[in-house]
Design goal:
mainly alpha, transcription, Tscrpt_reg_HTH_GntR, 3% strand, DNA-binding transcription factor activity, DNA-binding, Arc Repressor Mutant, subunit A, Four Helix Bundle (Hemerythrin (Met), subunit A), two-stranded antiparallel ribbon, GntR_C
């Protein structure tokens, strides 16, 4: 076992807030699905955690039917795993999952970063703003907002490719990437990783593209290694 601050927990205790029944009307099954998906992606329901239909229904004050519908959809997106004995758990990322996602990110983000010059003022401004807001949220200990800014920073880089098919592909991986980012930030939030983002922006502004790419590669490599350490024991 490692000394990772992130531990798998096979308890059925659910970190779920009640469902907001005052929101604009959407089918109840969809509302439950969105609630559970967000809880999984943001790390409130953690890998390996048991999901009981009865307990979820009780927490959200709904019947088991919409919960069952939501679980079926979550299963189709590999966010949960069905085990023998009709048990359901939040899916646990494998070493292969982590390596594949980061291989994709490394290929796309480094190529995209190479296309950003100091003439891309809007993109650079968006990256800069994401860094500043991410640092502010880190100091507040707000991992959810910090994760959102982290996601925004990296998606802004990818936008430089100006490729709609690539964007749709990244969108299809959104939940998986967001989950891994959430777990990584849980382990790293006390470490100022925003310094690396800021360094990337500074180097791009100066026209030092390959130097910026080198920092990005190390940034992604470190995140991958931390996640592999986190889940290799599982």
């Amino acid at each position: 076992m490692t000394n990772s601050p992130f531990k798998l927990n096979y308890t059925e205790d659910l970190n779920l807030d009640p469902l907001d029944h005052n929101q604009a009307f959407i089918p109840l099954g969809e509302a439950v699905y969105q609630k559970l998906k967000t809880a999984i992606v943001q790390g409130h329901l953690i890998p390996g955690q048991l999901l009981s239909e009865n307990k979820i229904a009780e927490k959200l004050a709904v019947s088991r039917t919409p919960v069952r519908e939501a679980i079926r959809v979550l299963g189709s997106k590999n966010l949960i795993t069905f085990l023998p004995g009709r048990k359901v758990i939040v899916s646990i990322p494998t070493v292969q999952d982590i390596k594949e996602v980061f291989e994709i990110r490394m290929l796309l983000e480094t190529e995209a970063l190479r296309r950003i010059t100091n003439q891309h003022t809007k993109i650079i401004e968006q990256m800069d703003e994401s860094v500043q807001m991410g640092e502010a949220y880190r100091k507040q200990g707000d991992l959810v907002k910090m994760g959102e800014m982290n996601t925004r920073f990296h998606l802004t880089i990818i936008s430089a490719l100006e490729n709609q098919r690539v964007q749709r592909f990244i969108d299809s991986l959104h939940e998986t990437i967001s989950r891994l980012r959430s777990y990584s930030l849980t382990a790293e939030w006390k470490i100022d990783r925003e310094k690396e983002h800021k360094e990337i922006v500074t180097l791009v502004k100066k026209g030092f593209t390959e130097e910026a790419v080198s920092v990005l590669k190390q940034h992604l490599t470190t995140s991958q290694e931390n996640l592999l350490t986190l889940f290799a024991q599982k």
